[in-house]
Write a structure and sequence with these properties.
Elements: E1 7-12, H1 23-32, E2 36-38, H2 56-69, E3 74-80, H3 82-93, E4 101-104, H4 113-129, H5 132-141, H6 145-148, H7 151-162, H8 166-177, E5 193-198, H9 207-216, E6 221-225, H10 232-235, H11 237-252
Parallel strand pairs: 1-2, 1-3, 3-4, 4-5, 5-6
Helix pairs in contact: 1-11, 2-3, 4-8, 5-7
Length: 254
């Protein structure tokens, strides 16, 4: 099906979730009449596993292939964590399709050698024990104290994470470990950009790490969202949606 939408918001989810983490944004954009596309990575949500190992670049190409098939000419990507890495690659190789950027709880730096080894150790443990320990760890590490006090939200997050296949998780971990360093790319970004961090993100992407993206991009705006850690769109959707709608209106007025 080709829809021939000139421009759409593109949701790129965090690891190990899927596009359902943006459910609160879907509702808001539908009310505002803003077109959007939400994708799942291979082995996450409704997307089947990729037949081989893949890279961040492979994901970018698959996603942009889908967008092209839909007839969408330009996107405003919103990438949380792993989604941000896809955004960087999109800008590096296909800047003509990008009309604005919303980086969320992500970083420009590549994995350190220590971080890579941690990912590889996690892969080996998943092969032996399954994914359960990783899901529990991520639920703890990615959420703020306020989110942890909300059993409904925590249960929903757990359900979203549990939709990930073990094969999908392992292949994603490899792609994350081998991703490029994007710090040198920052000065070239010349589209409207906002960078969002969760104020309570102490374990995954602390605000000072996320802010480095905004510092490297001319005129980028940096915003910390209270009562959220690594997943601001899900943890504090009211505040995140307010930021997002203001940004989208600004872009549409250019």
């Amino acid at each position: 099906m080709r829809v021939f939408i000139d421009k759409a918001v593109l949701f790129l989810h965090a690891f190990p979730l899927n596009s359902e983490m943006f459910c609160y944004q879907f509702e808001t954009l539908e009310k505002e009449g803003v077109p959007y596309i939400a994708v799942d990575y291979p082995g996450f949500g409704n997307e089947r596993n990729f037949p081989s190992d893949y890279s961040i670049e492979t994901l970018t190409d698959v996603i942009l292939g889908k967008i092209k098939d839909m007839g969408v000419k330009k996107v405003i990507p919103i990438g949380d964590s792993m989604g941000g890495y896809i955004m960087f690659d999109m800008w590096r190789r296909y800047p003509e399709v990008v009309d604005g950027m919303v980086f969320v709880s992500t970083r420009a730096e590549a994995d350190t050698e220590e971080a890579k080894q941690t990912r590889f150790a996690t892969i080996e443990r998943i092969k032996k024990e399954g994914k359960g320990f990783l899901i529990e760890f991520m639920l703890e590490a990615q959420t703020s104290p306020a989110t942890k006090k909300n059993p409904e939200k925590m249960e929903k997050l757990k359900c979203i994470m549990n939709q990930a296949t073990e094969e999908g998780i392992i292949k994603a971990l490899k792609a994350l470990a081998y991703r490029a360093d994007n710090t040198g790319l920052l000065p070239s970004i010349d589209v409207p950009t906002i960078v969002v961090a969760g104020k309570d993100d102490e374990k995954v992407t602390p605000p000072e790490i996320v802010k480095k993206i905004a510092d490297g991009i001319k005129d980028a705006q940096f915003i910390e969202v209270e009562n959220s850690a690594h997943l601001p769109p899900f943890e504090n959707p009211d505040r995140f949606n307010e930021i997002l709608i203001t940004f989208l209106k600004k872009i549409s007025q250019r």
